[in-house]
Amino acid sequence: MRPYVQYVLIYRKMKHAVVELLSLTGLVFGAGGFAPSIEAPLVTTEQSPVTSESPAVPPTFLGRHNATVTVHAGDTAALACYVLRLGDKTVSWAKRRGGEFHIITIGYHTYHNDNRYTLSYEYPNNWKLQIRYAQKRDEGLYECQISTHPPQIMRVYLSVSVPEIEIRDPRGAAVTEAYYRVDSTVGLQCVVTPAPPTRPVRWSRTHHPLTTQPERGIRVDTSLMGAGLSSWLHIARASVRDSGNYTCSAGDAVNTSVRVHVLDGESSAAMQHSTTDGGTLADCPSLALLALLASSLILAAS
Questions:
Q1: Which of 55, 168, 176, 295 is most solvent-facing, going by the fewest CB within 10 Å?
Q2: CB atoms < 10 A from the CB of 283, how many?
Q3: Which BP terms from GO are recorded (predicted)?
């Protein structure tokens, strides 16, 4: 074949290939392009970044350490323990007495045999220990603990103020027994020092309250006396049935009693030596006992 003819054939083939390529390109663009291919993800040797959390902040106390809480006997003592960021830890209360260590509460549970002790949680973070009707024996050092390692400890000292209380006769002498003759006026003074801020002074006889009752001749007068309180109990025209135990109290934990004897018959004559209107024999116990014995014999014989 002549060279000229070969060139013509090659040119026609190339022209035909170009035409097919252009046709295919038009179809692709007319259809919106090639469909995306699903390819395997690229494999990389780089490590993904590691996110490390910062160490947890441990729980801590909020408030004063080694604080002192003072309450009056008979009131409710409240020992606060504010804990921040408690997390999964536990709060407990304990009392130290000398070398002894007594657990009171763990979490919300109380482990004390005295039901006056309770855990009163106040949202959001006050694990408060309450002691109802506080007494002198409740005084001491208390510890609020968080169960970390080692434990975190906050100490609170509880001081219980107990007023002094006594019953006096009309002469101002403290008495535990008082003697009166029939138809005389029983006069007893109860003195409480210092004055309890939340507890009124009350009189009772064998657990029955005594208040002013004019029809029975009973009068109760209470007033301030310096830093304390004075409460007078008067019983006019006393009779034998007025004998008994009389109690003066300033709350459940502060009280004192006196035994009153109202004597009749010949025993009244033995009381004439007294210079007081009430006719007490507290200054002469032996004579009082003789008078009481004589009265008993007279009542037994009648």
A1: 55
A2: 15
A3: synapse organization
- 139, 127: one domain: yes
Cβ-contact 227, 164 below 8 angstroms: no
97, 180: one domain: no
pLDDT in tens, 26-47: 434 444 443 343 344 444 444 4
Query: Structurally, how many domains does the chain consist of?
Result: 2
Rounded Cα distance between 129 and 121, Å, is: 8
Domain region containing 86: 60-161
DSSP state of 226: T
Cβ neighbours of 63 (radius 10 Å): 13
Q: What is the pTM of this model?
A: 0.61
Alpha-carbon distance 165 to 233, whole Å? 15
Q: Kindly state the helix (H) or strand (E) to which residue 14 belongs, with its residue range.
A: helix 3-30
- Write down which residue in 119, 138, 161 finishes a domain: 161
Report the helix count and the strand count for the chain, using DSSP H and E: 2, 20
